[in-house]
Amino acid sequence: MGSKFILGTTFFLFLISFSIKARAADFDIKKYGAKADGKTDDSQAINSAWKEACASTTPSTVVIAKGNYMAGPMKFQGPCKAPVSVRVEGTLQAPAEPEELKSQDGWVVFRNIDGLTVSGGGTFDGQGSIAWSKNDCAQTGKCNSLPINIRFIGLTNSHIQDITSLNSKLFHINVLNCKNVTLQHVIMTAPGKSLNTDGIHIGRSSNINITGAEIKTGDDCVSLGDGSQQINIEKVKCGPGHGISIGSLGRYHDEQPVTGVTVRNCTISNTSNGVRVKTWPASPYGVASDLHFEDIIMENVKTSPILIDQEYCPNGQCQAKIPSKVKISNVSFKNIRGTSADPVVVKLACSKGIPCQNVQISDIHLTYNGKNGVATFVCTNVKPTMTGQIFPPACAKTVALR
């Protein structure tokens, strides 16, 4: 009797599982007219498949099978009636000429979706080389005219895994106004000289987890803008690029606080910076707190592997003599080791107006691999708490901002 009951129950559960799988629908873009010939614009077919998948009352999957798909702007708009997956196995290629996407807020945009999954091992190729040659934002200060490769806006409870962003025209991935999103085993690749090709930029989002990413690019591997809260970044391989950055903060009024950031178990190689917190001088009031960097390996970082810079002023476009009003507090740097091409291996340059509070330094060993001078640790307007073994000696040079 008992064994028959168990067998009957098992069979019943199997039927339920089979029924659920049977109801889950696949929406293959080729059935909507996608050619995958590398010439035809397949964006309409992709957008049509998405609209039907999003309208499905049962879980569904948009399938982009292996092949090369030329595609103009793609808008994956929600809300949807049930969870939707997008399985990208092939390569999507953006128009090479930036003018063809100039009016768009991004090349590929996922917006207002709950329970999204994007996976499949495929590639989003932004074909950015022409755009980089036309990018003069370092001189003009206007860097938003080029499209971001992939934008996630207003997502909740979503998972992005096993995709590659290649040669983006501007940022590779932008996470904005999102909650409870994981990016796992994502790859971003662009030449080190490509301008403003940040790997992952996060803003006004909470509970974002980045793990296992490989980022080779021409700007920050990961950058956090205002409103980034409860952000976990781990097992990231970064380089070339500008390292992992919080900020810059304080450029605009009404910026939201940055709180609860953890960066751990990362390797940063041949980058211009390591881990840094940067705020503008002459800024409005702001907050950056509970920022923790630990178990990080630095390999030949060019400028200050550990940096707090509250005089951040690229291209001299600011009032550098007026102190920043962004309050930085509860910051820790623990177990960070490696080499620097700059003798100033640690620089904590805090604001004269609002000095950094509760900065903890523990078990740091950073060496200078150049020939001019020795490794130094500079402190400005901050008195950190130090524990463990620290090399070079902490705050051997302590100065105040003028």
Summarize the structure in words.
With about 400 residues, the protein is mainly β. It has helices spanning about 1-25, 45-55, 130-135, 135-140, and strands at about 25-30, 35-40, 60-65, 70, 75, 85-90, 90-95, 110, 115-120, 125, 150-155, 155-160, 165, 175, 180-185, 185-190, 200-205, 205-210, 215, 220-225, 230-235, 235-240, 245-250, 260-270, 275-280, 285-300, 305-310, 325-340, 345-350, 355-370, 375-380, 385-390, 395-400. The protein contains four helices and 33 strands. The chain is about 10% helix and about 45% strand. The radius of gyration is 24 Å and the shape is elongated. The chain has one domain: Pectate Lyase C-like (3 Solenoid), CATH 2.160.20.10. The strands form two sheets. It has a 21-stranded parallel β-sheet that branches. Strands 5-8-11-14-17-20-23-25-27-29-31-33 form a twelve-stranded parallel β-sheet. This is Exopolygalacturonase clone GBGA483-like. It holds the Pfam family Glyco_hydro_28. GO terms for molecular function: polygalacturonase activity. InterPro entries: Glyco_hydro_28, PbH1, Pectin_lyas_fold, Pectin_lyase_fold/virulence. Keywords: Cell wall, Cell wall biogenesis/degradation, Glycosidase, Hydrolase, Secreted, Signal.
Q: Would you kindly provide a brief summary of this structure?
A:
It is found in: Secreted, Cell wall. This protein is mainly beta and 402 residues long. It is 11% helix and 45% strand.
